[in-house]
Amino acid sequence: MKLFYKPGACSMAAHILLNEAGASYQLEKVDTDAGTTETGAAYESTNPRGYVPALQFEDGQVLTENVAVLHWISEQFPELSPRAVDNPLQRFRQLELLSFLSSELHKAFSPYFSGKQFSQSEQAANLAKLNAKISQFDKLLDADGPFLLGNTFSVVDAYAFVILNWSNFIGVSLADWPRIESYVAGIGQRPATQKAMEEEGLAA
Fold first, then answer.
1. pTM of the model
2. Percentage of the chain lying above the pLDDT 70 cut
3. Euclidean distance between CA atoms 94 and 74, whole angstroms
4. What is the Cα–Cα distance from 108 to 40, expressed in whole angstroms?
């Protein structure tokens, strides 16, 4: 299979997880502004909506939308999901968290990557919204384990890491949320994360 990605974008969550699983895959970088891939192909032939990630399978089928891609990975590699046998609701907790990350936390970062110029009042509003969503995330951290769903590093942790790591690119400190700061640092040190960042040209 092939993962179409943009360095540092939400597609890096799938990249990290495929490394965690030891999966066999190829990478193809996408320039979403130009609408082309690193091979010069028109990306709209892979994903007509033009954004990442996209996961292309051996038979040519393509899966898009980050939540769908991450859910597929969790189904293919059960070690990347909490054991539902221990708690039947866990599978839905994972979906619940993916939904929050996608529709709330991810979107709160979006203005910072829009390329738009904001007034001082708009900047203040954007930061207030971002801080509110980060605070909501802080309350989601599991007190009984190092990850969002306890002791198992799962697809939601990979996605959360990618989003929260964007704070480094927009100059927003996580120091007011020490649990989150520690959580992000821990995931950032995982070999699969380090490998993904190196492969995407983001390693320090």
1. 0.95
2. 98
3. 10
4. 32
